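Notebook entry, structure prediction.
Reason for the run: the old model in the group folder had no record of what sequence produced it. Starting over properly, with the input documented here first.
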Amino acid sequence: MNSLVSSKRVVGRARPLLGLLLAIVLLGACRVDNVVTLTVKPNGSGNLALVTTVDAEIVANNPGIESDLSFEDAKAAGWKVSEVATTETGGLQVRVSHHFNNPQEATTLLNQLSGEYGPFKNMSLSRDGKDTDSTFTLNGKLEVNGGMNAFADGKLLSLIGGAPYKQALADSNQDIGQAVSMTFLARMPGKVTSTSGTPDGIDAITWNVAFDGSSQDVAAVTENTAVASTIARIFSPVLFWLLVLWLVVMAGFSGFVFFTRFRRSKRTPTA
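New structure, fully documented this time:
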């Protein structure tokens, strides 16, 4: 995303979407699961995606809920929005994603996921080095310290009425952590050298957002060294000159064969 894009345009729909789903889940004592995935390529570009899944009970209790969801502001700000799909268990799922060209744009997008109440705070992604030998550093904090405010801006809360939904939460005997889950997943190039999250042993690091007001550091460093590319880069000049030498030798050999045949033809007596 272009860093000049106003965060208000993006956040104005991204967080109200979560707020709307949260309001529904609190009234129905059901569940909404969210997975935010940061995928980074060796050159620093990549994709940020939010996948939100509501369970079948929400769908059953709210017919036509998919038609009530609007993503026009997100689309206008450059986000790609999938069709609202039905899950195998009868729930609904939607994916909102945005491409970025460099770590600076990724940082901007990460900080547009939420406002002052969290969950994403002071997020940053940086890259040092070249494509074939680089270090990626991810830093930030996960903290939900505003209850429902973390999922909806003040304007939305005033429109839907914050107090009634908070009372519905109390009446359901659930806290926000029981009604909503959020996982942050980072896929960064190379080997994980340090992290505050949980590596999966392959290519991902996971953090689970807590809803009790506690703060969780997001920290990860990966080192990406493309051995094959590095070797190719080092030896490519050598291979080039070997090719030139081979062409010269072959040209010389061809000339020698031609000259030898020419001399033999001159010595052959004519009838």
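Summary: The chain has two domains: 7-225, 226-271.
The old model has been moved to the deprecated folder.
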